[in-house]
Specification:
The complex is a heterodimer of chains A (about 300) and B (about 250).
Chain A (H helix, E strand, L loop, with lengths): L1 H31 L5 H20 L2 H30 L3 H27 L4 E2 L10 E2 L2 E2 L4 H23 L1 H11 L1 H6 L4 H26 L3 E2 L4 H16 L5 H21 L5 H15 L14
Antiparallel strand pairs in A: 1-4, 2-3
Helix pairs in contact in A: 1-5, 1-8, 1-9, 1-10, 2-3, 2-4, 2-8, 2-9, 3-4, 3-8, 5-6, 5-8, 6-8, 9-10, 9-11, 10-11
Chain B lengths: L5 E10 L2 E11 L4 E5 L6 H8 L7 E6 L2 E3 L7 H4 L1 E3 L12 H7 L9 H6 L3 H17 L15 H13 L5 E5 L7 H14 L4 E5 L3 H7 L2 E6 L2 E7 H6 L1 H8 L5
Classes of the chains: A mainly alpha (about 300), B alpha/beta (about 250).
C-alpha cells in the first residue's frame, strides 16, 4: 500500500510536468494549427538560460521567471520570423499541414546545434531550491518531498493563471475565437496575427517551466543532448494526444494519466518497458479514441 | 443629397481568367438602406468580401466619409465603423452567446494586449460584458446570453450574429442574406429591426428575398456577370427591363 501511494506521488509529479509540456503543444496547435516539435528546443534553451541566471544570481526565484520570459520571447520569435511567413507562402492545404511540421523539426535541430556550439560539453547546473528528501510519515520516508510539493504548486499556479486568462480576460477570449475561425475573428476586429504570436509566447513560457521543473525533478543538470528533454517532448505529445490535442484541460488530464501509468510500470514491471508503454498508449489512443480520452468537443472550451 | 459615407469606386477583381467584378461603383449615404441584388454568381458576395478586405481588388478606390484611403484590411473594418454578418451566420459554436457577442466588441476594449493578459484592467471585461448584454437585448436575445451558441435554434443564431455586429456601434452594418432560411414571422421581425436600425446607421444588404429587399431598401444595385446593370431607387430598378431580363434569363439585347 505504502509503495503504491509512493508510486502515485511520483507519477503525479512527473505527470504534472508532462501536462505543462502538453499545454505548450496544445496552445500552438490551437492558435496556428502547427505541430510544434520546436517546443522541445524552446524548453531546452530556456532551461539553459535558467541555469545561467541561477549561476549568476544564486536564486531559483529569479531564474524561473527569467527562463519563462526567455521561452516566451524565443517562441514568439520563431512564430513571427519562421512560421508566419511560411504559412503565408504555403500554397495549398497539404502544404499548410506538412511544411510547418518539417520546419519545426528543422528549427529543433538548429536550436540543439546552436546550444551545443555555445555550451559545448559544459553542463548547465540547476540545483533544486528545496530539499528532495521525502517527508517522514509514521517512521517511513514517503515520495513527497518539499521539492515535489514545490513542483506541484508551481504547475497548479500556472494552470490557475492560464484558466483565468482564457476564461476571464479579453485576450483569452480573442485567443479562443481566433483559434476557431480566423476570418470571422478578423471581421470582429481581432488582430489575429498578433493574437497568434501571443499564443506562441504563452506556449513558450509553459514549455520553459516544464524544462526547468523536469531538470530539478531529475538529475539537476542539463546538456544540449539531454535525453530527459527528448523524453519530455515525446511525453508531452503523448499527453496532448491523450487529452484530444485541442483542450488545455485534456492536456492536464493526459499528462497526469501518462505520468501515473508510467510510474506504475516503472515500479512494478521495470524501466525497460516505460518507453514501449508510452508509445503503446499513444498508438492505442490514436486508434481507439482519436478525439482523446475525454473526447468531447467541448473540451476545447477551457 | 448628403455626401456618401462609403464610396467604392471602380472595383475590379478577377480570379484567374474569370472577371468576378468589373468596374463596380457603390455608394452608401448616411441612414440609408442599400441592397445589392442579382442572380446567383453575379458577384454580390465577392463585392461584400472586397469591401471587407477578405478579397483584394485588382483595382478600385475606397472612400470613407469623403476621404480616400488605402483599401482596408479585414481587421481594420471595425475601427472604421463597419461591421458585417456572414451568410453562414459564423458564430463560434463552443463559446456562449454572450462571449460570441463580446468578440465583436474588441474595439471597445481600451487595454493593450500585455496589460490585458496580466489582467491589470479589470474594468475592460465588465464594460465589454455590459455592452454585449445591451446588444443582445436590442435583438431580444438577452435571455440566451449564457447558452452555448451551438444549442441555439437557427433564427436565434441570426439574432445573435446581428447582436455581434451591433455591439461595436458601427456606422455601417453589412448584412449578408439576413432573411435566408427564416420563416415568414422571423422575416417580418428582421424587416422591422432593419428599419429601426437606420436611425443610427447605414445598412448594406445582400439578399435573395425580393419581398425583404423591396420592403427595407431605399436604393438598389443590380449585379449581373460582375457588372452593375442597373442602380437607383428600389421601385424604379424593379421595373427596369434589363433587370427583369437578367433575373428571368431572357436576352433582351
Amino acid at each position: 500500500m505504502f509503495e503504491f501511494v509512493n508510486t502515485l506521488l511520483i507519477g503525479i509529479t512527473a505527470g504534472s510536468i508532462y501536462s505543462l509540456m502538453a499545454i505548450a503543444i496544445v496552445l500552438v496547435w490551437r492558435s496556428t494549427r502547427v505541430v510544434n516539435f520546436a517546443a522541445g528546443g524552446i524548453a531546452l534553451a530556456s532551461t539553459f538560460v535558467g541555469s545561467t541566471i541561477l549561476e549568476i544570481t544564486g536564486s531559483f526565484w529569479i531564474a524561473l521567471p527569467v527562463a519563462m520570459l526567455a521561452g516566451a520571447a524565443l517562441s514568439a520569435f520563431i512564430e513571427y520570423f519562421f512560421l508566419r511567413p511560411l504559412l503565408k507562402r504555403s500554397g495549398d492545404k497539404n502544404q499548410e499541414i506538412f511544411l510547418p511540421i518539417i520546419a519545426t523539426l528543422g528549427i529543433l535541430g538548429i536550436m540543439k546545434a546552436v546550444l551545443h556550439f555555445i555550451y559545448g560539453e559544459k553542463i548547465g547546473v540547476l540545483s533544486p531550491p528545496l530539499s528532495d528528501k521525502g517527508f517522514i510519515v509514521s517512521g517511513e520516508s514517503i515520495a513527497l518531498s518539499p521539492l515535489r510539493l514545490l513542483i506541484l504548486g508551481i504547475v497548479l499556479l500556472l494552470m490557475i493563471a492560464l484558466t483565468l486568462i482564457f476564461q476571464r480576460t479579453n485576450i483569452g477570449l480573442s485567443l479562443r475565437a481566433a483559434s476557431f475561425a480566423p476570418e470571422i475573428s478578423r471581421l470582429s476586429g481581432i488582430r489575429v496575427d498578433l493574437v497568434r504570436t501571443v499564443g506562441w509566447a504563452i506556449s513558450g513560457a509553459a514549455g520553459a517551466t516544464a524544462g526547468i521543473l523536469q531538470t530539478v525533478n531529475g538529475s539537476g543538470a542539463v546538456t544540449p543532448e539531454a535525453f530527459e528533454f527528448s523524453l519530455l517532448l515525446v511525453f508531452g505529445f503523448v499527453a496532448a494526444v491523450i487529452g484530444g490535442i485541442e483542450s488545455l484541460v485534456g492536456a492536464v488530464v493526459g499528462g497526469l494519466t501518462l505520468g501515473i501509468i508510467l510510474a506504475i510500470i516503472l515500479m512494478y514491471l521495470g524501466s525497460s518497458l516505460v518507453f514501449f508503454a508510452a508509445f503503446l498508449i499513444l498508438i492505442l489512443v490514436l486508434l481507439l479514441r482519436p478525439n482523446g480520452i475525454i473526447g468531447v468537443k467541448g473540451g476545447r472550451r477551457a | 443629397m448628403s455626401a456618401a459615407l462609403l464610396h467604392a469606386k471602380g472595383v475590379s477583381i478577377s480570379f484567374g481568367g474569370l472577371k468576378a467584378l468589373h468596374d463596380v461603383h457603390l455608394e452608401l449615404r448616411p441612414n440609408e438602406v442599400v441592397g445589392v441584388i442579382g442572380p446567383n454568381g453575379a458577384g454580390k458576395t465577392t463585392l461584400f468580401n472586397a469591401i471587407c478586405g477578405l478579397v483584394k481588388p485588382d483595382s478600385g478606390k475606397f472612400e470613407f466619409e469623403g476621404k480616400e484611403r488605402s483599401w482596408p484590411r479585414t481587421d481594420e473594418l471595425i475601427d472604421l465603423g463597419i461591421s458585417r454578418t456572414l451568410q453562414g451566420v459564423g458564430l463560434f459554436p463552443e463559446l456562449t452567446v454572450l462571449e460570441n457577442v463580446m468578440v465583436g466588441a474588441q474595439k471597445l476594449a481600451k487595454t493593450g494586449l500585455i496589460s490585458a493578459a496580466l489582467g491589470t484592467n479589470k474594468r475592460d471585461e465588465e464594460i465589454l460584458r455590459d455592452k454585449a448584454m445591451r446588444a443582445l437585448d436590442r435583438v431580444y436575445a438577452g435571455s440566451l446570453a449564457n447558452r452555448r451558441a451551438d444549442t441555439l435554434a437557427y433564427p436565434d443564431t441570426k439574432r445573435v450574429s446581428i447582436a455581434r455586429a451591433l455591439v461595436s456601434e458601427p456606422k455601417i452594418l453589412m448584412l449578408d442574406e439576413p432573411a435566408g432560411g427564416l420563416g415568414p414571422q422571423d422575416i417580418e421581425w428582421m424587416n422591422n429591426l432593419i428599419r429601426n436600425l437606420t436611425a443610427t446607421m447605414s445598412i448594406l444588404i445582400v439578399e435573395h428575398h425580393m419581398d425583404v429587399v423591396m420592403s427595407v431598401c431605399d436604393r438598389l444595385y443590380v449585379l449581373n456577370f460582375g457588372e452593375v446593370i442597373a442602380s437607383g431607387a428600389a421601385e424604379t430598378v424593379r421595373r427596369d427591363p434589363a433587370v427583369i431580363a437578367a433575373y428571368l434569363g431572357t436576352g433582351v439585347a
